[in-house]
Structures are given as C-alpha cells and as structure tokens.
Amino acid sequence: MKAFHAWLVHQGLILWLALLALLLAIQNPSIELPRDIRNYVFVLDITQSMNVNDMTLDGNSASRLAFARRLLGDTIDKLPCGTRISVALFANAEVLPLFTPIEVCANYGALQDILKNLEWRMAWRGSSHLRLGLQAAAMAMAMLPEPAQMVLLTDGDEAAPLNAITKTELTALQGSSGWLLAGIGAESPSPIPKFNAKNEIIGYWSLYATKIEPSQIVNEDSVGKRDDSIASDPHEYYLSALREDYLKELAQDIGATYVRADSPEKLRAAIDQLPPAGYDSAPVALGWLFAVLAGLFVLVEHFPTRSSTKY
Questions:
Q1: What pLDDT sits at residue 303?
Q2: Which of 136, 193, 223, 250 could form an S-S bond across to 95 if both were Cys, CB 3.0 to 4.6 Å?
Q3: Distance between CA atoms of 83 and 104, rounded to whole angstroms?
Q4: Which of 19-23, 55-59, 287-291 has the highest mean pLDDT?
Q5: Nearest in space to 102 (alpha carbons), one of 64, 144, 164, 53
Q6: CA pseudo-torsion sign 72, 73, 79, 81
Q7: How far apart are CA 81 and CA 111, in angstroms?
C-alpha cells in the first residue's frame, strides 16, 4: 500500500485528482432528489363568535380570534424555510385567500404583520356556515398554483344554527386527509359580545339574533326602535362555546383530522402529522462535496510523505 501511494505521489496523480475535484467544485454540479411538498393554507374564522373572551394570552383574558392570531404566528415561526403558506379568511359561507402561497422565511416579517392586523370587521357578512365554507375552501384550494394542505382555525359555532334542512352533504369532500380542523375556544359557554363599527362593545348577541342570519337583523343604528339582536338580560344571551363534537363530526365526514388547538405545540404536532401536499424533485448542489474531496487529496499528498521522513 505504501509503495502504491509512493508511486501515486511520484507520478503526481493525487494532485491531478485534487485539481479535477476543485474544477468540479467550481462547476458546482447538482443532482435531483425527491422531496415532500409542505405547503399550507391557514384559514382563520373571523365571525363574531370568535370575539368571545374565553382564552388566555400572557396571563390575561383574550378573545378566540386574538388567541388564533398568536397561535398562527407561533406556528409560522417554527415552519422550515422553503415552506410556502397562505392566509385565508372565513365568514358566512366563503373562504377568501388573501394571497397565493409565499415562502415563509423570505416573507416572515410581512406574514407576522398580516396576522397582527386581522380582525372581525373584515368579515363581509355576519353569518357562519361551516359546511358550505368547507366546499368553498375546496374550490379555493383548487385554484392555487401548487398543491397545499388546509388548516382551518374555528370554534365550530354556526349562525344561524344548523338544522336538518341546512346541513349540507359533504360526500364530495371525502378523502381530504391533508386537511386539519383546529378547534379554538373553551368548553364553558359564554355570551358573544356585539360591537359597533368603531369596534366598541354595545352589548351581547341575543337568542333572537341566532334564529336568523346575524347579517339580516335589525341594524344597531335604528332610531326609536328596540334592537332585538342585543340581549338586555343574561337569560336572553346567546351562549357560544367550542363545538368540539361538531368539528370532530365534520372531520370524520370529509376524512380530515381534528385537533383542539389550545397550545402552539399541539397545533404544530398535528400539522407535522399531515401527509405531504404533494411530491416533486429538488436540485441538491454537490460543489461543497468536491471542494472537501480536493482538500483531502492535498492532505493525502503531503501528510504521509512527511511521516515517512522520520524513519
């Protein structure tokens, strides 16, 4: 072996190999390797039941919407670079994506700023039809330029309440194994605060208001008339809680996954368990490998020769 090494050194072949490896490093060749596509559309429920203060942030009482915004911010913070995400809003029976999926690290500041400014006044109607919303989400997802998985953050509270007539069939959505329904809210029912256009609380929604769509009730600015949408006594309050059983039923109906998202860790763990949105190939540069190989050839050229001069 020593004789063979000495012959290589004598012929200068090791240095030629080092030069060849260095030239390859400069060219920086690459190979295509398969990868999972981990892209997500985070759909945020902005209907008024999400204004209920039954969550906690930093030791203080917080609304479901504020908690969901923080939850999304913490989740995005932990997503690996290369992940592409979009944020969408749910109200009435529609899901509205705010932008097509963008890379999370390059747009981190913009994404966090968007989340901080989402609020209930962005809703275009006051009603909430989750089953129709899931159908709208499927259509919105189909329009994206690349595949993505949906994560819906909601309390599951329908307004007007679901009944046998308004319960939409979701057979067409079965097989949505890449979707995640994330429940936000507490189990204990609480009244839903009603705000005016200036985001000032003026009372609480009444039972009357939930019998029809909230967007069709008497306006708060009506003069000389009682607004029956505002409860005057606690027994008139419409009480809202996390409809966990209903969300589990929805998830089962479409083959999705449900998680009670009461902590960032639980939501991230559930997202990690989702199947990839798709598969493709990505180039992996090999320049660094050839640069290391060139350095090793140079060491092999000199180090053993120095050792042999001691004997």
A1: 64
A2: 136
A3: 6
A4: 55-59
A5: 144
A6: positive
A7: 14
